[in-house]
Give the backbone structure.
Amino acid sequence: MSNKFIINSLMDNKRLSTQELLQLIYEKINEGFTEFEITASGQHNIGGPLWTNDGSPLEFDVKNPGQRVGSMGMPGTKIVVEGSAPADVGWLNSGAEIIVKGDGGDTTAHCAASGKIYIGGRVGARSGALMKHDPKYPAPEFWVLKNTGSFSFEFMGGGTAVVCGAGCENLESVLGSRSCVGMVGGTIYFRGKVKDLSSDVYIVDLDDNDKQFLFDGLVDFLEKIDRTDLLDSLSDFSQWMKIVAKSYDERKSNHLIPIKDFRKNNWVEGGIFSDVYEDDFEVAPIVAKGVHRLRYPVWENSAMTAPCENHCPIGIPTQKRIDLIRKGKLKEAIELVFNYSPFPASVCGKLCPNLCMEECSRGYVDEHIKVSDLGIMSRDVIAPSFPTTKAEKVAVIGAGAAGLAAAWQLKMRGYSVQVFDEDTEIGGKLRQVIPVERLPKEYLDKELGRLKTSGINFTLGHRVDAEVFGKINEYFDAVIIACGAHNPVVIPFEGNEKLVKGLEFLKRINRGEHPEIGKRVVIIGAGNAAMDVVTGAYKMGAEHVTAIDIQKPAAFDKEIEHAKSLGAEILYPCFTEKVTDDGVYLKDGRFLPADTVIISIGDRPDFGFLNPEYLDERGFVKLDEYKRSEINPKVFLAGDAIKQGLFTNAIAEGNHAAENVVHMFKGESLDTFTKAPQLPRDRVKTEYYQGLSAPAVQKIEAWDEKDRCMSCGLCRDCEFCLNACPEQAISKYTDANGNTIYVSNEERCIGCGICAGVCPCGIWTMKDNFENIDELASI
Amino acid sequence: MATIDTRIVKTNDISKDDLMWQIEYNPQRCTLCGKCAAACTFNAIKPDVERRRKVYSEGSEPKPNVKWITEPVIKQIVRTNKNCVGCGMCAKVCPNEAIKPVYNDKHRMNVKYRAENADSPKRGGRTNLHTEGRTLDKIKIGRISQMTDPSLDAQRHTFDLLAPFGRVLPPEQLPFVVKDGELKISQNGPQTRWIYPIIIGDMSIGALSTRMWEAVAIATAYLNEVVGLPVRMCSGEGGMPLKLLKSRYLKYMILQIASGHFGWDRIINTMPEMIEDPAGVLIKIGQGAKPGDGGLLLAKKVVRHIQEIRGVPKSDLLSPPNHQGLYSIEESVQKMFLSMNSAFKFRVPVAIKVAASTTSVSVYNNLLRDPYNIVGGFFLDGIAGGTGAAHEVSLDHTGHPIVSRLRDCYLAAVHQGKQGQIPLWAAGGIGMNGTLAADAFKMICLGANGVFTGKLILQIAGCVGNDYGKCNACNTGLCPVGITTQNRTLVDRLDVDKVAENIVNYFIATNTELKKLMAPIGNSSLPVGRSDALVTVDKNVATRLEIQHVC
């Protein structure tokens, strides 16, 4: 029997549905038919998946098929479409040979996984999409005589497609546009031009194997579609190229050029800011050295004042004295103080309230340094007689603390100094008014003796009046007026004539007199001088002494305690109404009975020897910022003559006057003696020091204070920084003068500040590398 | 025995407990390498010494011993201002994890700072109050094209991601003329540039370091010329580098003019030498992060080259809160738009930026009239926008969320049939979670033509700050990563190439993500106003934005 079954899908004016047509085919295959001639009318899916039990091939000759002809076709199936076929020819082809003599529609060969599809015309969009090659089966082939629509071969994973471009020589692209998107495998041969392919593929030239494959295939293909006439024109392989997918690695690789190359080659040369800001575009690390540090350390030895040095009116650097002791230079330590004061024992050791110790760092650990004991250590030092080496001559008017300090400084420097005083002995108020209980005679005598033998000339018992001053002014190259304040102030309330003046009272006692004052004494004023009056009053036999003041007493606590220990009562605020023979009436109605009322509220200088033009309307000498007379540039003032103060103030001013005189002689600019700022307290690391108990401190001798002094702002050469520096950036050397110097190497230093953090003395300071770091806005 | 701690502590002294950021330090792990202190730009930590005093008894009877050790450590500096800002540089450089800043959510600096300094605290960043969730995070893209209409393949298909900068005319007003029987566009129509829907901006030279600003400019040029994304950068108002003005890259720059008009004389004088027109001009009226406030650049950032570029002496630079000379909406449109359109002879589109406000719709309605076709865009900046420096009270307590206001403006245009004519651009926290594409996409669906983003760019560049009080010290000039500082020591920490590369990469990724969002809703061009694509489980959000409520 003939093995061929003929189906006409339109029978009796009735169209077979797809299902009816396909079921007819199944039935006939079961009956043993293997060839079909089908005149279809748009039925889908003709041709697959079909097979015979004995494996004999199936052949379909189809006219006018619907979509998906040959879909899911299997090996052994051959389908020939006479004319064109709509979309999805060979969809999921799994082995069939499908020949379309005319055109294929969209998505021809979509998902074809095996078998061969031959199209004798062109195919539509998305043809060849998702073709793949399962290695278990032969790879699919897809031949197109003319061209494909756009988006073809999307996601193609395997197999071979051949687009011959016959008659398409004028097309811009035989693959339409945006083809091969997502293509990961397989090969597409094409003849003619292509454009706008996806970036997932490369186009390469054919090799000999390609040409062989194509030639063999073309012979076959053209024969199947009845176009052998085209063999010659199509087998000019110079017109052919092939498309391959990028490999996985090629696809991954970043095709963008490095930004750095773009900046250097394309971008504005040198950068867009290069006209106003230089930049090499080098990148600094977060932790950097050299100029990229945020902060850098500076070893600032003695750049700031220690609290003792700062608070002492004279500026005696106690930390340096103790440092000399620490270094075993006891003699130098004892003598150092004489550069600052001729009265270390009398003033520092006995009289001074020791302002220097007010903020002594050690005081925050246990107790402040025993500075008065240090002063007393220098008591017995004998000074040499200083030779006169300079031509200039200086007169000093007044042999009190200020005048003697000035004379001492000038004499040490080799100037000829002549000191004038009305008194027959030098010492001024130190000797005239300070009770011996506060300043034992042997202390003062030792220190005055040192001055007397120092080479200073004294003219004593000789009051300087206007005439004498005139001569002094003429003869000497400079004059220092340190006449003190010896004119007690009295308030003109009723009965003021009955008052005893404190200064005179004290002077009489020190002269060895015994003024009668009775049992009850009221002292108006409660300053330091008044406390001396209290002491004197008790010494003169008073039994009940009361000091009154209009405000909180100005005397130092030490003096007040002393007065109270003698039994004195200190009252304030008390405003005196009047003084009578019975005592003092206060404005609030109180009455303080007294046998003697002493006033001690201050003394004024006596400038009777000066021409009034020297003086202001209040009777003080008109001075410039250097404490020099405004009208006579070689006249300087010092001490109580300027303003009543402590002995240390007087000594400081004496020193200053002397130094400015020296500056003047040398033609240098004068000094206002502004001190360097005090080292902030937290810069001294108290943490290192274990405090001592009060009895333990008591036992310490002055020269052992080297163990307690924290050497504020003065390097103690402990090498802590040297050891702590994480970058080993710090080194230490000795300079030409024998001083130890520490330096930090900026090539190594990262600016961490550990040196500053660990420095016990606050020497290392971190400086900001930033501009205006202290003006930072709030955060 | 004397006291162990020699500090004198008083009730009113500030203490570590008051601070917003506390340094957590473990001396056992510390090797005293000093890196943390070396790295701290805020000078908030310092090496110091501490005591370790141990009193103990040895043996079977009470027998006191005292062990006294003084040990170098790293300590936090506690001050009434200029404290640790939590930037974490110390932790970053510490080799041993021995130190880190920890946020103290019970801090008292809000009280202490004001009480101690009689000053209103200032900072950079954006709002740090999180009193409401982010609206954009409550919205999902819920309409997915499946069988109703074909979705697209994000990776493989072509998309048109372009947004208009410039006036868009309705069809009947398009300036077509028939000439020689052919339809031609007359040159007199408004200029509109079709650009990437995400503008980088607008951060000034001065607020940003030279390196940071240049890195953004390089990234922009690279995105255009190498990657092929037409991204534009808005200059901010801090002047323009002359070399950039004279280069061909000017075409990628939108020049900003704010109330200070800084640097515009240089722009004007450079016009004869320009070889390209700028991409646009943006008139800045207000800023979302600090609406009602003008620009603020504190003096320490006004270094020599900033003085030169801006044409000012060293001082705190405060721009007025509004443009002097503009007293009404009409005047803004007529005067400012006309001036700026004429600046480049009507070749360059001009848009305006305002802080989102309850008045935004009125302003937009007014702009929509635009009889002269000179209004090229309405930029709306919400409260979650960033700033280099502002009073904290402005940052945290003034402003308006962007989402509903943008939506309102869009719908106002829709009701007049004028949507799309004056492009809407939205900003203010767009991309603040790092998800720029999602935020941009949602804003576009709600009616924005595009978005602009600034703070995110800084994050990409390596900004360590966040919206929970971390760092936010842009105003101090001490930016630890060299982004918002003019101090060379710090600027040099910034890697221009790396920053530009990261910005480029971020945009490439964002571009992919935008497509990933456009594909499922089946749009191959930007879905402006396609609010049907959005859903939310939040009923209030749904009602307010007129999008679908789902659950």
In short: The mean pLDDT of chain B is 91. The first helix of chain B runs from residue 35 to 39. Chain B touches chain A through 90 residues (CB under 8 Å). The radius of gyration of chain B is 27 Å.
